[in-house]
Fold this protein.
Amino acid sequence: MNLFESKFRQSLKSNVALLDKIMYYIIKRKGKQMRPMFVFLTAKLFEKFEDKTYRAAAMIELLHTATLVHDDVVDEANFRRGFFSINALWKNKIAVLVGDFLLSKGLLLAVKNKEFDLLEIMSNAVQDMSEGELLQIEKARNLDITEEVYFNIIRQKTASLIAACCAGGAVSVGENMQNVEKMREFGEKAGIAFQIKDDLFDYTNNSIIGKPTGVDIKDQKMTLPLIFTINSVNTKLKKYIINIIKNHNKNSKKVAEVIDIVKSSGGIDYAEKIMYKYHKEAITILNDFDNNDANKSLKLLIDYVVNRKR
């Protein structure tokens, strides 16, 4: 990871002073870097490591960072990981261009090294993530998201990038297509579990304020605990919940009421059950490979995905 960080910093270099300043800020506020870990551990699962593996990890991190910068613009968010967002400091126009720059840097890494297999994996991930976001926006307008649509959204929006990490890690060390596909599927299942865990944070106590946040409800996002609840309560209560989400979603008292209904209706327990199902399926895929240190670490990483506190 230390070597990766220096290579990643190198990949962000630019001839524009303003861009260099913003890139320095982005590096300073980096997150857990879970996605590069998925790339490296997948490569090591096959007892191999190549320069191409670093490029796959850098591509993923560039793509992921680009989507975060663009997300903050779309969501009008002023903070990311406890720091000011790029749009809060440099305004939307610059933030959009910075996101474009990061995305192009990632794609050019593959083009310059003629690694078109990585380019295909990353380009598919960009397409999936864009379609997933747009599908979510389309469905949120009518609050008509079924479980099937919900899983389509998170498979594209979140899981596709982690799937690309694992497929990219396998491709980077020359694995056959069968193993690449297995690792893509592993990453997809890990990504779905990751998103369901994110959904659950909306209903679990925030360590700072001591109560659930209800941010997704305020944003009219239909998450798994809420979808289950709406489909399992009686018609009168269903209409009441939908009315709050549509017309009173900024009212903290009403949002807290919805959170209580979701909890008492078993929405949390159901979402946790589904999350652990995907966790178990991901572990089962890993059991097909040698139980080396990388395999054990991938299992620890997916355990972290479902047990993390933030």
Q: What stands out?
A: Strands lie at 79-80, 83-84. The chain has one domain: 2-307. The mean pLDDT is 87. Residues 86-112 form the longest helix (27 residues).
